[in-house]
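call fold target=Neural/ectodermal development factor IMP-L2
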Amino acid sequence: MQFLSPCVLLERVLSVFTWIALLGRPLRASLPLVQRPPSTIHTRDEFARLNANLDKEQLLEKAYVRITKKPETVLVSGGESFELRCEAIGVPPPIISWSISGKPLLMNYDNNIIEKLHNIGHKTIQNGVTATKLRVPCAKKRHQGVYSCHAGNAHESVEANATVAVEGQSRSCSRKSPSSPIITMWSDGRFENSGLAVQLFCRASGMPDTQISWYDEEHRLLNHNSKYEVLENGDLLIRNAQWDDMGGYSCVASNQYGEDRVSTFFYPTEP
């Protein structure tokens, strides 16, 4: 693949910016949760080339992905809720999607591209652990099957499977009723060289609209701090990360019906 200079890479950003912005919108909560990127193949190809050239220029380590926590088999009574969890580690940090019996269910497409654009001209570690959960509030027979957790980072992809069985008669389930948010994918841990930007994942679904808030370990709100930026998809971008930025961060997804929260740990390393 032809190497692109930082200037050319920045020009490419203009051609893919609209698609990145579209991908930044939060997913919805109720099943099915299929979200597809815009259909323009040319735009997707431009994004893929941009991402590949950024990694070629920046990565210090060889890209890889490995699942560190597999989803567990579930036996649930009809009408009850169940939840599947999965974790993966990788360079660059993997994004995770779900399918049931081969059919897309909960999809994530955007990776840490914003971080990469901020770090043009620098060598990066991009090592991270990504976690995900898939929650079904009211199990029906159609929810049973083989669920697959797909982890990938545009270089490699891996998957882990778990079987869900629904027994008994399903009780009546409410249809598209308002619900509290669910954080479906987040960074469990991140490593990056100090002085660089780092992007912490936090993707949430919910009806109605979900508000994303980020806090440091001193419980200070970061949304309106100029050092940080909460992206449209809920991720937190830390600019010029330093040793003082090491520690725990909390992402809270909330609406009028409730909230969900997760935590992550960021460790800046010396370049």
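return ok
Residues 65 and 90 are 4 Å apart (CA to CA). The two ends are 27 Å apart (CA to CA).
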